[in-house]
Specification:
Distance between the termini: 39 Å
Order of helices and strands: EEHEEEEHEHEEHEEEHEHE
Number of domains: 2
CATH class of the largest domain: Alpha Beta
CATH topology of the largest domain: Alpha/beta knot
Mean pLDDT: 93
Structural class: alpha/beta
Length: 239
């Protein structure tokens, strides 16, 4: 059971106030109370040990330690921009991307997309990001960007390393060097793949097409496999 809780505000005068949902989880689910010590993170990279001062089903007040805990933020900034899979597969994708350390997720609309997530779905996903951060001891929330059309992203993305996953792309040995100081964006297409027009536009705007293997992967598999491969290939800036 998690003993980590989320507060969107840093300590004020040494005290942290949890919102109703987090307070309810602390008090009713975890059955914690005055004197218990937990961990609280603010979603922006800071976390504290904190002792519970008051706890009810509607609010909780904690006393934070004087120093923040050591940072557990990834050193490589990866954005996953992906077509949206059907059903709860998107929830799984967002949960695992958060665990891996992706900094941002952009839901895409492509020429062959079959799912366009609603605003209510994206709101539920934001809760899933918080829960995943609590579970995996991550201190920064993964950003969920608005739904974006692929052609707009191909033109406007400003990351130094721009990658488009495609079955006919370059093998890993030919991928660009993944340096920790250079943000990366990885685009994942729909089940039907990218159209010829989309591939041509990506090439026109300087995107590198990469292969994630010989098999056709589902959207969520490709997104997680691709981002995991990028994290594994990270080279520190000083190297």
């Amino acid at each position: 059971m998690s003993t980590r809780f989320y507060s969107d505000s840093p300590p004020v005068d040494g005290r942290i106030r949890l919102g109703p949902e987090e307070a309810r989880h602390l008090h009713r689910v975890c059955r914690l109370g005055k004197g218990d010590v937990v961990e609280v993170f603010d979603g922006r990279g800071s976390a504290w040990r904190a002792e519970i001062l008051e706890a009810t089903a509607n609010h909780a007040i904690l006393i934070a330690s004087d120093q923040t805990l050591p940072s557990r933020s990834p050193t490589l900034s990866i954005t996953i921009a992906s077509a949206v899979p059907k059903g709860d597969r998107l929830d799984w994708l967002v949960e695992k991307a958060t665990e891996l350390g992706a900094c941002r997720f952009i839901p895409l609309v492509t020429d062959r997309s079959v799912v366009d997530p609603s605003d209510s779905k994206l709101a539920r996903l934001r809760k899933a990001v918080v829960e995943s951060c609590k579970q995996c001891r991550r201190d920064t929330l993964m950003t969920l960007s608005p739904v974006t059309r692929l052609n707009d992203l191909l033109i406007k993305a400003d990351e130094p390393i721009k990658l488009l996953a495609d079955l006919d792309g370059q093998p890993p040995a030919s991928w660009p060097r993944i340096m920790s100081a250079r943000p990366v964006i990885l685009v994942i297409g729909p089940e039907g793949g990218f159209t010829t027009t989309e591939r041509a536009q990506a090439s026109q705007y300087g995107w590198t097409t990469i292969s994630l293997g010989a098999h056709i992967l589902r959207i969520e598999t490709a997104a997680i496999a691709g981002s995991a491969a990028l994290f594994a290939r990270e080279e520190k800036a000083s190297e």
